[in-house]
Amino acid sequence: MNYWLVKTEPEKYAWSDLERDGQTTWDGVRNFQARNNLQQMAEGDLVLYYHSVSDKCIVGVAKVAKAAYPDPTSDDPRWLAVTLAPEKAFAKPVTLEQIKKEERLQNIALLRQSRLSVMPLSPEEFDILLGMGN
Fold first, then answer.
1. Is 52 in contact with 118 (CB distance < 8 Å)?
2. Range of the domain at 25
3. Is residue 92 domain-resident?
4. The CATH number of the domain where 89 resides is what?
5. Signal peptide location in the record (predicted)?
6. 132 in a domain, yes or no?
7. What is the total count of domains within the chain?
8. Where are the alpha helices (DSSP H) in 14-89?
9. Using an 8 Å Cβ cutoff, are 70 and 79 in contact?
10. Which among 21, 27, 60, 76 has the fewest CB atoms less than 10 Å away?
11. What is the pLDDT of residues 78-105, one digit of tens each?
12. pLDDT value at position 112?
């Protein structure tokens, strides 16, 4: 199993929207590195759901319900999407400030490549963040 973090603006598609909908197509990614990460996602992989811009915190765990397929919002076959489904909301959001202060997370992609919208996590990083949120 692999672990991931995806970023979304809560004003556009929040965790509550994912819970309400039961699943969503994670589309519209137009960065090659993020696209490559989408391509590596496998069904059943776990994904931390990060509210960017206004909230700046991880709010829940989703899972990949369907691996990469052509992005329905693009005519260009190079762009991909996956389907995500909610697993569990965090008991307490894990803020960017908390992540920055956690010494064991100093190499996390969220801090090194802050503009990347889809990024891998190591199993250790995932476990640390999961523990912080629950």
1. no
2. 3-120
3. yes
4. 3.10.590.10
5. none
6. no
7. 1
8. 15-21, 32-40
9. yes
10. 76
11. 999 999 999 999 999 999 999 999 999 9
12. 95
